[in-house]
Amino acid sequence: MIQSPGREGTCRNRACRPGSRGKTGTFLFGNASDFGKGNKPVNRADLAKIIEHTLLRPTATETDIRNLCTEAVAYGFRAVSINPVWTTLSAKLLQGHDVAIDACIAFPLGASTARMKVEETKDALQNGATEIAMVINIGALKSGYAQYVEKEIATIVKAAAGAPVKVILETSCLNQEEKVAACQMSLRAGATAVKTSTGFGAYGATEEDIRLIRATVGGHLDIKAAGGIRTYGDVVRMLEAGATYVGTSTGVEILNDAPEK
After folding, report:
1. Is residue 133's pLDDT more than 90?
2. Which of 114, 119, 171, 242 could serve as 36's disulfide partner, Cβ 3.0–4.6 Å?
3. Considering the domain boundaries, does residue 18 fall inside one?
């Protein structure tokens, strides 16, 4: 198990060198390199397959989760994004349906120890999650403990045992150098995707951040735009900037507002 930050040497900027590339991953939705070129879904069915139907507020009830899963099936969303406590129920409701269950780990602060994140990851998967989204240790990254952060991501990837792992950056808390470094760490650590935000930060996904992330990871990682995405226009802008898919709590409204064909 990796040590907590402060118990190993400071590794400031080791992960910030331009040009670092990770291995090509298996993308969750097509080829990530297809995006950022003005592409957008051609119909509502395609649009649904790049939306992760999200309910992460602490006040979510069982009824809310049941409704979330019912909508995910009815509208054909690619995933539900939930807190781990709801994985068992979601797995039961979504059994036999082509909807991924995305459990958010150390959410929304990312300030748990690596050991706690590993156990939360394993528990979520055992209870029915099919994908993991982990919040990085933001304070460790900003303190210069790049090696710790990268090892933590790699440890979660290993604990996920082949399940896709998204790395949540919380871009509103990071400067440009830190965003680039975190993306490069995610590549090297074997993550599947980078996610911009928790939705609880000062702001969510921006076109500028999506472009920066895409320029950093190229076609090697998926990018999930999340936080503040509420309209069909928002989705199109994120895709055109380079996102692979989006997380939103207003997926139903977005689909209803989208062109039918």
Report:
1. yes
2. 242
3. no
51 touches 78 (CB < 8 A): yes
Instruction: Answer whether 166's CB lies under 8 Å from 224's CB.
Output: yes
Instruction: Report if residue 173 sits inside a domain.
Output: yes
Cβ atoms of 213 and 191 closer than 8 Å? no
Question: Tokens 């900037």 correspond to what residue?
Answer: 241
Residues 137 and 110: their CA atoms lie apart, in Å, by 5
CATH label of the domain that carries residue 158: 3.20.20.70
Neighbours of 39 (CB within 10 A): 13
Query: For residue 19, what are its two tokens?
Result: 């040009």
E strands, 15-136, where? 51-55, 79-82, 100-105, 131-135
Assess whether pLDDT exceeds 90 at residue 81. yes
> Where in the sequence is the domain holding 252, given as residue range(s)?
32-257
The number of distinct structural domains making up the chain is: 1
User: pLDDT tens for residues 175-225?
Assistant: 999 999 999 999 999 999 999 999 999 999 999 999 999 999 999 999 999
Contact 227, 201 (CB under 8 A): yes
Helix (H, G, I), strand (E, B) or coil at 248: strand
